[in-house]
Amino acid sequence: MRNTESSEDSKALGTRITEARTAKGISVARLAELAGVSKAYMHQIENGDCARPSAEKLFNIAQVLDTSVAHLLGRGPKGPEPGTVQIPDSLREYANAHPELTQEDIEMLARIKFRRQQPKDAKDWDYLWESIKRSVK
What we know:
Elements: H1 2-24, H2 28-35, H3 39-47, H4 55-64, H5 69-72, H6 89-96, H7 103-111, H8 122-135
Helix pairs in contact: 1-3, 2-3, 2-4, 6-8
């Protein structure tokens, strides 16, 4: 019975990862690359064909998918609730100088990462914000 539960847990984990990856619009290969695992291993995880990945690998996958490990394990919310996103000091500084930014705008910016990195100073946050505004006119 334990193996059946374990197998069902693995399949459910794989399904949640696949759903989050699809919603984010990234391929298995790209998720694997960003999470630091092989494409074959990522396929095994998504198909429920392997034991649960290590905490480190699961954390990396959750980070790439902008969700929580708890959500992937079926034990928590999908991601941070509004108002709970950590705002970097450099973004807070930028937002303080730009009162037109709403809290929603600030939280959206705080969630943006490129190769797990965020802008480091107000000038870079400004460039990012202006680029977003121009791209969605």
